[in-house]
Design goal:
Chain lengths: ~425, ~130
């Protein structure tokens, strides 16, 4: 390790951490703590550890031992992936990259003392903190629903047991029953996600429960890839899917989990499965760290640094960064810019201009894949869109098949980029 | 009459050969790097020597989709390619000669030097 002025100062000012990696490089290594092991956090931890070649001590705090990706969880609902195929462990990050993986909840951040408190009672010190906590739900955004009703009316918008629960409810639904989705208002994680989910639920029901109905209660006047989804729904699932838009009562829906009822524009309707996707906000730890403004944490596009605290970086869904959609791809892209900036600050490594990109693939039916994507650059104001593309309606089946196959390649690529 | 039939048959045969050649060519042009489908990269561009460190940074944009260890499923492997093939392929997207919405978008904002840097980095990755 090259000892330079910056990390010498940070080492002498640092206090011994409660939890630390093997002391290969001694106690003088600068410390990065990453909270959240998803597409943003796992990527950032891996890139910092890999590219600093051990010069930075990286700790990753993530409560789950097996991480289930939200992306492709809809394909599990559709029967295209088994559940295990969307689960990943952090073993390689620990063994191949020397990352100190701590399976615990971060419950508080002391930004003046630069420590993170863990639910298990420990603390970790940091020189730079990276928050990639994903989303939490806004209280009372769907009247009648709160976390205590998530077993009755699952959100399934954080992958894992919620995804399995929704899958079981759909599979056990009575013949001719109704699956209802309360769609989320903007901004939210994975803009095409709810509509890919509708497609996958329809795909499953068409085979197992063809007289079933799908009811979408939609608070937004329009949504991502709407024309493409609607084209696919009328082609593959005619008569199965009904959408009630904001003008007709799709906005301001109330739910009664105990009686499995939804109240649409004053009318009560009984449904069989109710998938409530509430309004979203940055994961709670961002608020506790004092970096949020309203529901999200504003960031500087060049570095993904918080606008409120230059020693804290925010990645992915939790960040208010400008034009990028909240997606795993975006979080992964932002993580690379952040990793470069953090290494530059801590070890004086070379810093190149920030570049971002995103693509969201969705599956409508077997071999019918669609995509939307864009490239972005950092401006002083925000992450700004440069150019983009979207699949076209009426595309040839071979193009749609290739798009789906491409998404499989992307899944293999990004998960290897995250978990090694 | 016999001559006429033979002439027609041989003409048909030639047409078939031309058709198949074109067909085979089209398959290769769409799937593999080949220098002969009409798209050319200038000697000046091929002469640019990239910066491997810069290429490594830029490569992180590629490895979100292209598997870093060269897995080739749904998305082509881009590791271990000769520099010239890599440069040729990226410029064919950048110019629009080769079509793919994501690759056209990504390459259109890569400079010639950045493409050279990516090429030298990915050539160095052998799996």
């Amino acid at each position: 390790m090259k000892l330079n002025r910056r990390n010498f100062i940070s080492a002498s000012a640092g206090i011994a951490a409660t939890i630390s990696s093997p002391m290969v490089f001694g106690a003088s290594r600068p410390k990065v703590v990453v909270i959240g092991g998803g597409a943003g956090g796992a990527t950032a931890a891996r890139y910092i550890a890999k590219d600093s070649k051990g010069a930075i001590d990286v700790t990753l705090v993530e409560p789950t031992r097996s991480y289930y990706t939200c992306f492709f969880s809809n394909l599990y609902l559709g029967g295209f992936r088994d559940f295990d195929s969307i689960g990943h462990s952090y073993g390689k990050l620990a063994s191949d990259y020397g990352i100190n993986v701590v399976h615990d909840w971060a419950v508080d951040v002391d930004s003046s003392g630069k420590t993170v408190s863990l639910a298990g009672g420990g603390t970790v010190n940091y020189d730079k903190l990276i928050l990639s906590p994903g989303i939490d739900f806004v209280d009372n955004s769907v009247p009648g629903w709160d976390l205590s009703s998530q077993n009755k009316m699952p959100h399934s918008y954080k992958a894992g047991s919620q995804t399995q629960l929704l899958n079981a409810q759909i599979e056990n639904m009575r013949q001719g029953g109704t699956y209802c989705m309360v769609a989320p208002p903007n901004p939210y994680r994975c803009p095409p996600g709810p509509y890919e989910r509708v497609s996958m639920v329809a795909h499953k029901l068409k085979k197992t429960n063809p007289s079933a109905k799908i009811l979408i209660l939609e608070p937004k006047p329009k949504f991502s890839k709407q024309g493409l989804f609607e084209e696919g729904w009328s082609k593959h699932y005619p008569g199965m899917i009904e959408m009630i838009g904001p003008e007709m009562g799709g906005k301001g829906v109330e739910v009664r989990p105990a009686s499995m009822e939804v109240i649409i524009d004053g009318e009560t309707e009984k449904v069989d499965v109710c998938n409530v996707i509430p309004a979203m906000k940055a994961g709670k730890i961002a608020e506790l760290a004092g970096v949020t403004d309203g529901n999200w944490a504003p960031t500087i596009a060049h570095t993904m640094q918080s606008r409120k605290n230059s020693d804290i970086h925010i990645l992915g869904d939790a960040a208010a960064q400008g034009d990028m959609p909240k997606s795993g791809f975006s979080a992964n892209s932002q993580a690379k810019v952040c990793s470069m900036a953090v290494r530059g600050e801590l070890t004086d490594s070379k810093v190149f201009p920030a570049k971002f990109s995103n693509t969201c693939w969705s599956l409508v039916d077997t071999n019918d894949g669609i995509k939307v994507g864009a490239s972005y650059e950092a401006t002083d104001e925000k992450i700004a869109k440069v150019s983009g593309f979207v699949s076209k309606t009426g595309e040839d089946a071979s193009v749609r098949k290739a798009t789906y196959e491409e998404s499989l390649g992307w899944y293999a690529g990004i998960t290897s980029d995250m978990f090694g | 009459m016999y001559n006429l039939i033979m002439k027609s048959l041989s003409l048909l045969f030639i047409c078939l050969i031309i058709y198949f050649k074109f067909f085979i060519f089209a398959i290769f042009a769409s799937q593999e790097v080949s220098d002969d489908d009409g798209f050319e990269v200038s000697d000046e561009i091929l002469a640019i020597v990239g910066d491997i460190d810069y290429g490594e940074y830029l490569s992180s944009e590629c490895t979100t989709c292209h598997h870093a260890q060269g897995l080739d499923e749904g998305i082509p492997s881009i590791t271990g390619w000769p520099v010239e093939s890599f440069v040729w392929a990226l410029h064919s997207y950048k110019s629009g000669a080769r079509k793919h919405p994501i690759m056209e978008m990504i390459t259109q904002r890569l400079s010639n030097e950045e493409i050279a840097s990516l090429a030298i980095f990915f050539e160095s990755i052998n799996n």
